[in-house]
Amino acid sequence: MPVKLNLDKLDFQIIQEMMEDAEISYADLGKKLFVSGGTIHVRIKKLQEYGIVKGTRLSVDLKALGYDVIAFIGIFLEKSSLYDTVAKELKKIPEIVRLNYTTGNYSMFAEIVCKDIQQLRFVLHDELQKIKGIERTETFISLEESFARNVLVNDTAAG
Amino acid sequence: MPVKLNLDKLDFQIIQEMMEDAEISYADLGKKLFVSGGTIHVRIKKLQEYGIVKGTRLSVDLKALGYDVIAFIGIFLEKSSLYDTVAKELKKIPEIVRLNYTTGNYSMFAEIVCKDIQQLRFVLHDELQKIKGIERTETFISLEESFARNVLVNDTAAG
DNA sequence: CAAATATTTGAATAAATATTCAATATTTTC
DNA sequence: GAAAATATTGAATATTTATTCAAATATTTG
């Protein structure tokens, strides 16, 4: 059972700012939000205790590293009861970075990151086809990412 | 023109580790990767100069904040030339956190994060429908996220 | 509205950690 | 394979920044 959350505007502002840039110091963030560094400290400690804040991650330019190809894959299963076993197999493919069980047309929805179309072709054709229970797949290759951002967090009806 | 990258195994190991946890100190990361803290320092400086490393982001438990509903939206446009104007309109909707221009069935592919089904309904029905140029949409609500992780980076045919 | 409780402030301090750098080791070049 | 160039080491240092805490403020409660 989660602790009853009682977050105010400042908590959400801290989260929003640090989702963009976690390197900012408590003092500087305090200046930005018109409170003292001590208050930022107390709030972040609270957010960590609540389990809302779960550390920081390095932001990396994957394109610059050569990971140019992003695609989405809609997956049709032979039987939806096969979800767990197929998910387990998909997890073994490192190029697949995300998998969701979805309503609608597809049984599951995957995101894949590759270095080039050859690698994508290999995963789709050689690896996915081997997995028992997948009926067929539909691939949507991203030609351009228009934007990717964080959700705007606030306290309307939260917690 | 990007600087010719010359990244070795250690660079990729540093990136991989810090994509999971950016709070680790140079000394500790050095221990983990069997080099000195000084070497980690030099490598990270290089990665920053290359523009590969772009700061750190706070990792937040959105579910705990009440953002329970994730959905994917396939969007059909009346004419694919309308992409830019529609993208601009979609960017104004804060619940839409990501938009890709894709090959395949749909013209564009969006991801949306909401607090509840009511909010999702509102965005789909009241906001998306208002946008000129959208023919129709297909929504896939995530019932479960099986996994979400970073791609495995390495130097095969990189940079 | 007074008392009790909780929160914020801001400066002092402690702690952590990035940075520096001479010595050493490794790799590359000719 | 010797010389030159480059990279690593690891300890010393400087710097940053989290942490602490008493006083001041603000908020809640009966």
Plain-language structure description:
Chains A, B: Keywords: DNA-binding, Transcription, Transcription regulation. The structure is a homodimer of 159-residue chains. With 159 residues, chain A is of the alpha+beta class. Chain A folds into two domains: 41 residues, Winged helix-like DNA-binding domain superfamily/Winged helix DNA-binding domain (Arc Repressor Mutant, subunit A, Orthogonal Bundle), CATH 1.10.10.10; 73 residues, Alpha-Beta Plaits. Chain A contains five helices and five strands, in the order H-H-H-E-E-H-E-E-H-E. A four-stranded antiparallel β-sheet of chain A has the order 3-4-2-5. In chain A, helix 2 crosses helix 3. Chain A is elongated and about 55 Å long. At the A-B interface, helix 1, strand 1, strand 2, helix 4 and strand 3 of A face helix 1, strand 1, strand 2, helix 4 and strand 3 of B. Strand 3 of chain A pairs antiparallel with strand 5 of chain B, so a sheet runs across the interface. Chain A binds a DNA duplex (30 and 30 nucleotides) through helix 3.
